[in-house]
């Protein structure tokens, strides 16, 4: 039983056609009513998690970094090893407070180093006594960073780590310049007078 394309259909009972705004009062034919449907395919969505690193992870980031990682990587590696946490609003607030505290601490340390550098500049030269070697300006032994640290402690009552002292090789009497790296951005220059007694 073959039907022609001009067969009349009753569209008035179809809610779908009513939603498309068709005039349902008049019967229509299939031939003059072509409704096109488009099917949209959705791309598979990436499932990402916003995390903060609790410790340094090679090739990913450093402690405190905020980043997006795939859900599986977080679930299978970062979470079981305790290297990351999911970011929450309270965690972000705590992070900002911690960053502000660290910045304030760095600023305070730099200011202290600058004040200490000014103290070293006002002191003048530190005098180091060594036993004379007998031939002109030579002395027995050398003046080491530890010697300079001991003299600084005796004169201005400041404890300084000997690892921050850069001293040229001193084997003769005379005036030398030592550098004290008090902070990554602050270096103090100190004069050292070596004389034989």
Describe the fold and architecture.
The chain is an alpha+beta fold. Among the domains are: 48-87, Ribosomal Protein L9, domain 1, CATH 3.40.5.10; 108-196, Roll (Ribosomal Protein L9, domain 2), CATH 3.10.430.100. It is built from four helices and nine strands; from the N terminus they run E-H-E-E-E-H-E-H-E-H-E-E-E. The protein has helices at 15-19, 71-81, 89-123, 145-156, and strands at 8-9, 28-29, 48-53, 66-70, 84-86, 125-130, 165-166, 174-183, 186-196. A four-stranded mixed β-sheet has the order 6-9-8-7. It has a three-stranded antiparallel β-sheet with strand order 4-3-5, with helices on one face. The N and C termini lie far apart (130 Å). The model is unreliable at 1-13 (pLDDT under 50).
List keywords for this structure.
mRNA binding; 4-stranded mixed sheet; Ribosomal_bL9/RNase_H1_N; alpha+beta; structural constituent of ribosome; disordered N terminus; Ribosomal Protein L9, domain 1; transit peptide; 24% strand
Low-confidence stretches: 1-13
Helical coverage, percent range: 25-40%
Main beta sheet? 4 strands, mixed
Give me the number of helical elements.
4
Looking at this structure, what is the CATH superfamily of the domain at 108-196? Ribosomal protein L9, C-terminal domain
- The topology string of helices and strands comes to EHEEEHEHEHEEE
How many strands?
9
Question: What is the CATH C-level name of the domain at 108-196?
Answer: Alpha Beta
Q: Taking strands numbered 1, 2, ... along the chain, how are they ordered across the largest sheet?
A: 6-9-8-7
Name the structural class.
Answer: alpha+beta
Strand content: 15-25%
> What characteristic shape results from the CA principal axes?
rod-shaped
Mean pLDDT: 81
Signal peptide: 1-21
GO cellular component, one term: chloroplast
Family: Belongs to the bacterial ribosomal protein bL9 family.
Domain Ribosomal protein L9: 61-88
